[in-house]
Amino acid sequence: MMEKLYLVARIADTRVALRSRGIHSVVTVGTPVEVPGAPPHVAGLFALRSRVFTLIDPHVVIGLSPVSVAPGQRVIVVEVAEHGYALLADEIEDVCFIEAPETRIAGKLLPGWARVADAMIEHDGASLLVVDPSNFITLPALKAA
Amino acid sequence: MDDLLNDFLAETAEILAEAGGAIVAWEADPADRAQLDAIFRFVHTIKGSSGFLALPRVTALSHAAEDALDQVRRGHRAANAALVTGVLGILDRLNELCAALGRDGTEPAGDDRDVIGALDERAADEDASLEIAGVPLRREDDLGADLQGWRSIRVPLPLLDSVMTGVTDIVLARNEFARMLRESGADLSLIASFDRLSDSIAGMRQSVSQMRMQRIDKLFAPLPRIVRDLAQDMGKKIAFQTSGGDVELDREMMENIRDPLIHIVRNAIDHGVEPLEDRVAAGKEITATIAVSARQSGNQIEIEIRDDGRGLSPEALVAKAIAARLVTTTEARALGPKEKLELIFRPGFSTAAKITAISGRGVGMDIVKANVEKIGGVVELRNDEGRGLAILLRVPMTLTIISGLMVRAAGQYFAIPRGTVREILLEGADTVRIDRVGGGELATVRGKQYPLLRLETVLGRERHQDDDVDDRALVIVRPGQGQSYALSVAAIHDQEELVIKPAAPMIMATGLYAGTTLPDNGRPVLLLDVQGLLAAAAIDANEAGRSQGQAAEAEAETVAARNAAQLLLFRDMNARIRGVRLSVIERVEEAPVSALFESAGRIQVQIGTDIFPVHAAALPGGEGTLKLLRLYDGQAVLCYPIAEVIDIVRLPDAVQPSAAPGLIAGVVLVGGEPVELIDPFWLMEQYSVGAAAAPTRRQPLCRLADDRDGWGDNFLAPILRGAGYRVIADGDTSDEAPDVFLCLTGDGETCSHAGGDVPVIRLRTSIAAAGPEDDTVYRYDRQALLDAMRRSVGGEAA
């Protein structure tokens, strides 16, 4: 069942269906603490309860310019390799089961999206990109290495 | 049943690891009865628990070992290498059985007659083979203590983590609550009971963090056994030492360095230590030394494995690498000396001419490196070809509590591990001079030069517009032995105990940070990697060859003159806010309370090798550390204890002077609040009485002569020094011309130094003078002696 569960959100100006495995929660953040010298997609650090999370700006991963973090912004908390991250989301729409199968990506995407998107899926009469949230976190690192 | 078995296995695994080390220690000193008893208890414990669990093979094995050891205890049997090998054989078999038990849950069928038989006295091989040199390392008190220490339970790691998280949350909530409580103006009794709660939370936080930590001793425990067995197999003599076993490490991290450590030690024995004849030929002692030591260095734990073997030969390594087709000849030529050594970290590399059964087990240095790097550590090689190799494992102290200094730069806070901070100075202080040299910056502190790094620059940030240039401080950082630099920050905030956790890999990859921490205000703070900053700034922080110009001092003073009128605000020990002119403060020291002592009715403090007077009526009680303002008038230092530094402000022009001279020179208004101004003149005067005899002019030099029994050096010299003379003891070969000789020649003899240009004072041992012509001075007549000294040396001044 978990495989069918997606978080539908608008990330980096695009509606996507995020695979829910690895997603911890959706929270709001205040002003993050900057990390000088960090890769550009690191938008800062913030604390949630007693853990420190690294805030990732998907805009940068996609190749857009970074956005500033507004206090109260909603972020998607994910866990990758025992570290906590949060993805800046433009808008969180819904968590839902999508029965339709994931299909191969048809058409040409922007290079940034082509890197992170795994598949497409039909939902409510619209085609959404299926993205594993960890792609936003690990891919830029791979590129840098 | 499963639980019982698990407990048994966990306990036995620990016992076996300890027992191996204990037996080797005992072998080195068979007369050590306590050691023998401890080993006996080890096997006895295993036998007892296995009988309860119906594990016949384990029982039989432990019984055999117990039996043999008991005979030794009763004196029926001598301890020899064969017996020790036999007992170790049993322990090995027990280990195998336990492994099988853990895997299958049942004791496998099998025959143990071979190892039990080996224990048999008749089977013992009398021509005992090589003995192991050197006494391995268990501290005596360890074994006894550990028997109790085994009482432990196993707790799943996630549970521990959740407890830790919970406690940290409580701390954050407490801080929030404390803030609200202060703002609401709650009554005292409420605050008092809250404080009590607060204290117990702090205590709890401490113990919870300790739950994750373990002494590194545990990691060292199996090593003596490994060294012994390998050395014996290979016919080498090796003395093995460990130190720093009390360093604490995260248990999880410990698991990750266990195998690398063992591998490196094996390598050292196998490849590092030469065969006996080669050692003799090289003029070395036959017995090789392998030393494993651990120490905490800043935010890292350093584990060093050092041997005095042949070291690495870069050329041999290159030849090997080419033969193994790891590099081409062309590539090899381009390698620097360091890169050549690091060839051993390449996968598929093995330094032994032939793969031996010992090291060549598929675990190479590449795996060691990968394991250590996995936990954010580094492996360093310190090679001394022909004389030995030291391998340094540096692992970060993650999930650790360290004392951190909070600093501000570019509008945000950063933490610096307190252990690496040598000194904190204000950039505007008298003792600091900053030069721009060819685009770089250099800080000179009391004649010592340090490369200057501005934190904002290293981090690639701009200075924050709100930062006051007067707040800027220099933190003198010592990232490692023989390295130091000055880190300039916008302001020093305070010092806190910080729980350090690793940052996300992409942040660690910057090399600038050693982790993250969540201080009590709940906003994450990055812990700076003081070594990494150095690398990022590409600065050579080596202390060697830095000059110490006197001219620099003079210039520093002119710079200081410009910044003279600043006021350091602080809270003193009575919680009053006071101020003192910044220019009289040499620096702020942090000294442990235990460094303070009372002597001759005065409180003094020992800082490093110096002793300074402290302005305090009584010794402060309690523990921990004390902040001391170090006042310096150009000659003497006085320490003034304070609770905390508050701020640095411009000294207001309007000072309301106090009526009578005293500690308080007057009152000024700072930000609308009255602040008492300390009078450094009065203060220094109070404490300069004893130091009055130390004048600025050159101290006269007095040489003791014929001080045959050391009386002069032991009894007389301290008095003379106290009176402002420098004293050269008899027998000191210094050829500086003395101003006066003090002859301790026996009564009636003539002093060998009499007759020169230098005045001579002769001391006699008898209280009565020999006659009216006798110009000698009775040696216990202090006043007469000092008078005579004054007449001889500084006549007119007296």
Describe the overall structure.
The complex is a heterodimer of chains A (145) and B (798). Chain A is of the alpha+beta class. Chain A has helices at residues 58-62, 111-116, 133-144; strands at residues 5-11, 14-19, 23-29, 42-48, 51-56, 73-80, 83-88, 91-97, 117-123, 126-131. Chain A has a single domain (2-144), classed as CheA-289, Domain 4 (OB fold (Dihydrolipoamide Acetyltransferase, E2P)). Helices cover 16% and strands 46% of the residues of chain A. Chain B is of the alpha+beta class. Chain B has an 8-stranded mixed β-sheet with strand order 21-25-26-19-20-29-28-27. Chain B is globular, with a radius of gyration of 34 Å. In chain B, 35% of the residues are buried. The A-B interface holds A 33-39, 42, 45-47, 49-52, 54, 81, 83, 85, 137, 140-141, 144 and B 165-166, 168-169, 171-172, 410, 412, 459-461, 501-507, 509-510, 512-513, 516-518, 522-526, 536.
Distance between the termini of chain B: 93 Å
Taking all Cα atoms into account, the compactness measure Rg of chain A is: 15 Å
The ordered H/E elements of chain A are EEEEEHEEEHEEH
Q: How are the strands ordered across the major sheet of chain B?
A: 21-25-26-19-20-29-28-27
Note poorly predicted spans of chain A. 141-145
Number of domains of chain A: 1
Q: What's the CATH first level of the largest domain in chain B?
A: Mainly Alpha
- Number of E strands of chain B: 34
Residues in helices of chain B, as a percent range:
25-40%
Please tell me how large the radius of gyration of chain B is: 34 Å
How would you sum up the global shape of chain A? globular
Write the CATH fold name of chain A. Answer: OB fold (Dihydrolipoamide Acetyltransferase, E2P)
Q: What do we call the CATH homologous superfamily of chain A?
A: CheA-289, Domain 4
Find the count of extended strands of chain A (DSSP E, 2+ residues).
Answer: 10
For the report, how would you describe the main beta sheet of chain B? 8 strands, mixed
Main structural class of chain B: alpha+beta
The biggest sheet of chain A amounts to: 5 strands, mixed
